[in-house]
Amino acid sequence: MSSPKLAVVVASVNGLPYLADCLEALEARAPEAEVVVADWTDEATRQLVRERFPKVKLLSFDEPMAVPELRAAGIFASGAPYVALIEDHCNVREGWAERLVSAHEVGHSVVGGSIRNSPYLRIRDWAAFFCEYSRYMEPAPAGEVDDLPGMNVSYDRRALDAIDDLLHEGRWESWLHGRLLERGFVLWCEPAAVLDHAKDFGFVEFLSQRYHYSRSYAGMRNAELGGKRLLFALGSPLIMPLMYWRIARNVLARRRHRRELALATPLILLYMGVWAGGEAIGYTLGGGRSLLQVR
């Protein structure tokens, strides 16, 4: 049997049933891929992986680990020439793996795809989706782009070598992709490489996620900002209209889900207010342990 061309690294922080659904989708739609799960949830989740998915390479961590750290651990444990990153609340669709590999084989070092909202009936789910993934929703632009999602992206080994130190530091994709762009890599979007975002966020849960994500993000930036971080803290409320404008632009440009955007707007604005507050605290007090709370 030939060695797999694609490794799929799954950062597992939500446990069951999300991880089981994710692995079932990979088993059905990317059967030839090398699958690496980096998990810190619980023993019940790991036991299910061992029993139902024996081909999966399982990395178990007893202490809480941040999503970027889990991604890095999975990358370092993989062996295939191309390494894709997803999360446990993501279900790949038909043709996903083939699209990524084909793009790599014609010379693209960094390839990402589109994200589809799976829990689509409730407005709170649309609000969460718009806040996180409006830039990557279908139809994503094909070709060279200036940004790709962190949980539907694939790298060749040359690209991974260029960000090795950032992976060891546990950096988010904004740092990884910024480095790659600085070094002349092209970020390539293959819109047909689609996965479903299948996380069912509760209202309070997503408020918490917005706070912890923004605080951890701001905390990571403090070292590079120096004294300017206090100015960024004071200016944090200004990001609310900017972020909402970006979301609205992304949705309107695609000519779909406009009704959902209108209905979700009050929640989106509330979530953005929490994000702004989290950034302000992160810039003034640091990230604390917020990074470990991000799901």
Give an overview in words.
The two termini are 36 Å apart. 51% of the residues lie in helices and 15% in strands. The strands form two sheets. Strands 3-2-1-4-9-6-10-8 form an eight-stranded mixed sheet, with helices on both faces. The protein has a three-stranded mixed sheet with strand order 5-11-7. The protein is of the alpha/beta class and 295 residues long. The chain has two domains: 6-113 and 148-197, Spore Coat Polysaccharide Biosynthesis Protein SpsA, Chain A; 203-293, no CATH class.
Annotation keywords:
three-stranded mixed beta sheet; Spore Coat Polysaccharide Biosynthesis Protein SpsA, Chain A; 295 residues; 15% strand; 2 domains
Number of distinct beta strands: 11
Shape: globular
Find the structural class using helix and strand composition: alpha/beta
Largest sheet data: 8 strands, mixed
* Helical amount: 40-55%
> N-to-C terminal Cα separation, in Å?
36 Å
- Radius of gyration equals 18 Å
